[in-house]
């Protein structure tokens, strides 16, 4: 089955060449194995390109499927092959509105276990709450997105097209952003508003059912 990861090498024109690693997502140790002497980590990174000359945004929206990939590495050959490693988090439960909604969380090999354990525990708890009918799926996703951003400075994105594109649903995915973007408070307030609206909708649904 593998633990899939994508490895993006920055070019002089600030675009990226993208490669694939079948086992690079199991841990983030690949970050220490990519060097100027071993740019493909002794074969752990496949030689053929997945894509070339693409922007960082397109890495996420066109190639980093959060259902499939577990890690992303950004490599800067001009900086002596410095590597930034990210854990990929899938922000859905299998049948929600945005099957490709995900986040990347920057983490080194020491911190990545805590990130993974925290995310799995939080997501499992929310799934139980949804199943009990105490929280709508929409509100749970908004809450999960907010926690990923607040607790771990996560970067949100949507891979591919949203599953639910019907007009009038009132659902707007949270805008994507990279870690260096500065409009944190505006985005966090938007997430909080979505969470509150979702709770009110859920309460009305339960009242109508009763």
Order of helices and strands: EEHEHEEEHHEH
Mean pLDDT: 81
Radius of gyration from CA coordinates: 18 Å
| Residue fraction in strands | 15-25%
Number of domains: 1
Q: Would you tell me the structural class of the helices and strands?
A: alpha+beta
The largest sheet, given as strand count, sense and whether it forms a barrel, is: 7 strands, mixed
Widest sheet: strand order? 3-2-1-4-5-6-7
- The number of helices is 5
- Number of E-type strands: 7
The geometry reads as elongated
Flag low-confidence runs: 162-177, 179-192
Provide the helix percentage.
Answer: 25-40%
Cα distance spanning the termini: 45 Å
Overall description:
InterPro entries: DUF6735. Residues 187-210 have a biased composition (Basic and acidic residues). This is DUF6735 family protein. Residues 159-210 are annotated as: Disordered. The chain is α+β, with helices and mostly antiparallel strands and 210 residues long. The chain has one domain (5-209). 36% of the residues lie in helices and 20% in strands. The protein has 5 helices and 7 strands. The chain has helices spanning 30-33, 56-63, 112-132, 137-152, 184-209, and strands at residues 5-10, 16-21, 51-54, 71-76, 82-90, 101-106, 155-158. It has a 7-stranded mixed sheet, sandwiched between helices. A hairpin with a 5-residue loop joins strand 4 and strand 5 (82-90). The longest helix is centred in the last third of the chain and has 26 residues, at 184-209. It is elongated. The chain starts with a strand and ends with a helix. The relative contact order is 0.13. The model is unreliable at 162-177 and 179-192 (pLDDT under 50).
